[in-house]
Amino acid sequence: MTGRFRAANQVAIVGYAQSAIERHADQTLGALAVETARQAIADAGLRVSDIDGFAGATLLPTAGGHRVEDGVSIVSPNWLAQHLGADPSYVAGFTGVGQIPGSVALAVNAVASGAADHVVLHRALHNPRAGYHDNSMRAAAGAQQWTAPQGYFGPLAMIALPYNEYLQRYGAGRDEMAAVVVEARKNGARLPWSFWHDRPLTPEDYLAAPMLYDPVCRFDCDIPVDGVAAFVFTTAARARDLPHRPVYVAGYGMSGRVPPRLPLHWPLDDILAGGLETARRLWVHAGIGPADVDLPQVYDGFSPFVWWWLEVLGFCPVGEGHRFVADGGIDSDRPGALPALSGGGALGNGRMHGVPQMLECYLQLSRRAGARQRNATVGVACHSSPHFGGAVAYSAVPV
Amino acid sequence: MTTRPLPEPDEQTAPFWEAAADHVLTLARCARCGQFSLPPDVVCPHCGTTDPAFAFTPVSGRGMVRSWTVVRQAFLPGFDDDLPFVLVDVELTEQPGLRLIGRLLDGADAPLEPGDAVRLAFEDVAPGVAVPAFELTSP
User: Fold this and answer.
1) Could you read off the pLDDT of A129-185 as tens digits, one per residue?
2) Predicted ipTM?
3) Mean pLDDT in residue range A11-37
4) Is residue B124 in a domain?
5) Hey, is the C-beta of A328 within 8 angstroms of any chain B C-beta?
6) Of B59, B75, B91, which residue constitutes the final position of a domain?
7) Binning pLDDT at 50, 70 and 90, where does residue B139 land?
8) By CB neighbour count within 10 A (0-12 exposed, 13-18 middle, 19+ buried), where does B92 fall?
9) Which residues of B touch A217 (CB under 8 A)?
10) b/e per residue, A319-344, with b = 16+ CB within 10 A?
11) Which strands, in side-by-side order, build the sheet including A295-297?
């Protein structure tokens, strides 16, 4: 990847659907996925027989050793295609990290190349009944022998180390992090589909929460949920004949090489250096820069990611994200601010793993956001850590 | 006897755990380029050889705290009686960027600053099994 995306603006999102986001759905995850995909296809003005491509990712993001069963705890693109009764010519599962941008790249590349005409991209997230990260491991084999015997295990420890490293290095504090989480929950409370609908959070409640892995409390972590989202992609030319205003894909950037590390060890320098490279790739690929973006949607599965994405994308200098947010820099109600969590993010919706960021870009840029409609033209949807994930640039008009 | 997860040595890592049982920290050193790898992998990340013939070489066990967290809820068995405890992310002196994570045995309230000096300690968790940990070096 050395230059601009040759297929920039040639592929568009033309429809979507999302299930309710609940702690535990009444239905099996597979049934929820089939219903959501059918709704998305109908929303795009299409029939199942029009869909010849499927893309998605299946990671069940728990350290808890829960059983992975297609149609039950995950839903693969193959499973969905078969149970929809579709007859696809292209099915692709993304197995890297940054599941949403990675899947979008598969879908866009398939449409742009002609491997498929209409692609359904879906993501189905499941919350197992037993403790999400609880693991009864008695023997630590393979890579985990280097960390689990010491008690270093799971994503809370993973994020606590670079989060604390950042607090120490840049003189940041949890009082500033309160502004991140309160902003996400404020916006999430406005979404009827969100698990946190009508439930904003106060800074006092945030700061009163007990520590789990200092400096991480439970409000710094998105809550595990059952939920499914699906989006339909096709060519910009075909999109002209479909009911909704298309949202174009300008380009995407995926993270690259990271230093070899212990399992789940993400030193702050890796996150920032790797993230700057991810952002550089995004801007080159999409042919835009941060000044062109009026709807950045940063990833927030853990709250510190918000600071780091804002910094690596160039919306504020490295080390300044904590002040930028605390000073109202991402307040969705403040004119002139960057509404970087206007879609509620993962903290304001539930653990939908990059879906809230993508959905907000789609809803706002297709002008389907209803009472929340903003005047936005270029969005960026981020997912995962800046050094271990990716981002997609969307636009309301070809850029 | 602990219910903590015990390391399961494999063909490659057996020498590490044998030395650890004697409270000696060894690290995998590539026979081609001499660089340390933690954890050792199939390919040496420094020189790219697919035959790194790693030799576990004793090292000083000294390092510097880069970050830490206080663990107040354990997701693994066997740690509940130790809560809360501190995990430190340590850059070892042997090679820039070489980092090892372990428990800090100075207690959950030990004052910590980035850059604090630590040295290896070992926790004997089962007969013949010791796990690397750290303790603050007195100034």
Assistant:
1) 877 778 888 899 999 999 999 999 999 999 999 999 999 999 999 999 999 999 999
2) 0.97
3) 97
4) yes
5) no
6) B59
7) low
8) buried
9) none
10) ebbbbbbbeebbbbeeeebbbbbbbb
11) A90-93, A53-56, A119-125, A227-235, A11-18, A247-254, A388-395, A378-385, A295-297
Residues B41 and B76 placed together within one structural domain of the fold: no
Q: Is the dihedral of CA A331, A334, A335, A336 positive or negative?
A: negative
- Say yes or no for a CB contact (<8 Å) between A214 and B70: yes
Domain that holds residue B137: 60-139
Helix (H) or strand (E) holding A323: helix A321-326
Can you spell out the DSSP letters for A169-231?
HHT--HHHHHHHHHHHHHHHTT-TTSTTTT----HHHHHHSPEEETTEEGGGBPPP-BEEEEE
User: Under a CB-based contact definition with an 8 Å cutoff, are residues A364 and A75 in contact?
Assistant: no
Using pLDDT thresholds of 50, 70 and 90, give the confidence band for residue B80.
very high
Q: What is the pLDDT of residues A69-125, one digit of tens each?
A: 999 999 999 999 999 999 999 999 999 889 999 999 999 999 999 999 999 999 999
Q: Is residue A63 scored above 90 in pLDDT? A: no
Q: Which tokens hold the place of A366? A: 């297709």
Residue type, A21: I
Task: Work out how many domains chain B is built from and give that number.
Answer: 2
A164 vs B contacts (CB less than 8 Å): 67-69
DSSP structure class, residue A351: S
Q: Which residue of B has its CA nearest to A164?
A: B67
Least CB–CB distance from A149: residue in B3, B4, B68: B4
Kindly list the residues of chain B whose beta carbon comes within 8 Å of any beta carbon in chain A. Answer: 3-10, 13, 17, 37-39, 41, 45, 66-77, 79, 82, 85, 87, 89, 97, 99-103, 113-114, 125, 131-133
With an 8 Å Cβ cutoff, are B75 and A154 in contact?
yes
State pTM to two decimals: 0.97
Residue B116 belongs to some domain of the structure: yes
How many percent of chain A have pLDDT more than 70? 100
The mean pLDDT of A395-399, rounded to a whole number, is 94
Token look-up 């406005």 returns: A190
**Interchain contact A65–B (C-beta under 8 A):** no
